[in-house]
Amino acid sequence: MNGETLFGIVATILQSIVLIVVVLQSIRLTLMKKNYFLPFFFALAMMSFLLSDLYWIAYDVLKPDTRMPIAANEIGECAMILLLSAGLDVVLKDKKKIPAEIVFTFLFIGANIVLWIAWSGEWLQDVLFGIPYIYFLWLLIRGIRSRGVLIRKELWLASLMGVSVLILQIPLFFVKGFLFEFIKVLCFVVMFALMAWLGFKSFQSKDYFMTLAFFLWTELSMFLCPEPYYDMAFWVNIIVLPMMYTSMKKELANDLC
Predict the structure, then answer these.
(1) Which of 3, 13, 77, 105 has CA atoms 20 to 30 A from the CA of 131?
(2) Predicted TM-score of the model (pTM)
């Protein structure tokens, strides 16, 4: 087992500890039986995420330094996205189907799936487990827009930066040398700039939809990052977990008012 794998195990254990705390606190809210469904779906989503982490830890210990094939962790992460989507659907009041939003979510997640396939070659896994992200992203966009969490210019800026990251990923498959390094650095500067901005807006608004958008971007970023950028996105992903719980709790309180 090399140092990189060991570091990954330690980081995943830390994430699992955070998830256990979040799950226990979410269960406590669920037992209060006030707007039962939101904390219930959130708790189940975090449990699914925790099971995915535990599988990762077990796999890395038993088969260190080997690439994991399609496995239980993918099912856990897919369940997490579906359960978070179920919770969003409970609290989303404006469910108008705006064609531009629907087209964008299909194209944006579809482009991510194509990049995953190009990187891993596992087209069945990437397509199957990428589909739930389409509905998840649509719910986030609809919620953020309808609540006015971001103004129109901010939505355009976030969309442009996200699309730019995907576009900058394409030449990395074909170019080499200085040009490769330049594009790679530019790509990850945009990626983490968007991540930092979403984190700031999440902390500022403490809005559930905004915080989950921040979480989603950390997830999508990890899927597109090599080391050491993956580690950076992973640590941000850990940080956002208690923020998600806090914003969910605020959402619950607002709904009860």
Answers:
(1) 13
(2) 0.94
